[in-house]
# Entry
Amino acid sequence: MTRAIVYTEFGGPEVLTVTETPTPELRPAHLIVRVEAAGINPIDAKLRAGRRTSAPLTAPRHIGRDGAGVVVAVGDDVQGFRVGDPVAFRETSGTYASEVRVAAHNAIPRPPSVSAAAGAGIGIPVGTAYQVLRSLDVGADDTLLLHAGSGSVGQAAIQYARLWGATVIATASERRFDRVRELGATPVAYGPGLLERVREAAPQGITVAFDAAGTDEALDVSCELVADRHRIGTIVRGQDAGNYGVRAFGGGSSTPLTETELAWRAEAFPVTMALIAAGVFSIEAGPSFALEEAAEAHRAIERGVDGKIVLVP
# Structure
C-alpha cells in the first residue's frame, strides 16, 4: 500500500487527509518512484480550495505535480533509468504520496549533488519563469522589471534573465533584499512610490516586465514604464490581463499555453538540473513537512514563507 494525501471536498487546508491506496501499478513507458520530496506550489492550494477548477468532486482527489525520489521499478519500453536511480519529475498526478507512477518522459536523472528538495523545486516554478522569459524574448539588451522577485518563480526568473545577460530590477520586501541581490538583481521595495523608485534604479529605462505578484500596482507601473505592452507578462492576473493589454500565461488565463510554450516549460527541467549540479543556479530551501503535515504545509504557502516548501513522506 501507498500513503497519499487526498481531499474529498473543496475548502481550507483541513480538507487534506492521509489515506492508504493500492501501490501504483507499473505500466509500459513508466517508472514507480519512492518519493523523497514533493514540491508544494501555490496552484496546489488554489485547486484544493476550488478556485481553479469547475469539475465536481466525485471521488477522492490526489494532489501535487512535482517531486523527486528514487526509482523502485522500471516499466517496459523505458530507456536510461534503472532501479535505484535518483530522479526528479514533473507533470505527475498525485505527488503528495510515498510512491507514485511517473511517465518516463517526465522524469530526469538527479545527480548526487542535487538534493531531493532542490529537484522537487524545479518543475512548476522554474518551468513557469523560463517559459515566460522566453515568451517575452528577454535577452542581453533588456532591463527587466520583475514583480515578486523573492518568490520561487521570481528567483528563477532573476537567475535565467541574468544568465541571458539582462539587467533585472526586482520588487521585494526589504527583509528579502539580500537574497535578491545575491541572485544578481537590484531590489526595490513595493508599495507607494514604486514608479519613482524603479525609475531611479533603472535610469536607462525598462524594456520588459514580468508580473508574479498580481497587484494593481505591479501592472500599473509596468504599463507606465514599458512601451510595448506585448512585452509585459503576468502569471497571476489572467482574467483581466486584457483590460491592461498585457499577456497572460498559465493559471487563470483563458488562453491555453501554445505547444511552443509548453515545450519551453519542459525544456527548463533538464537545463536547470544541469545548472544546479554545476553550482550556477540555486533553489532556496524552505521548510519541510512530513506527509501527515500537508495541511500545515498549505497554511505555510498561503501565508507566505521564505524558500521552497516540500513534503517529505
Observations:
- The two ends are 14 Å apart (CA to CA).
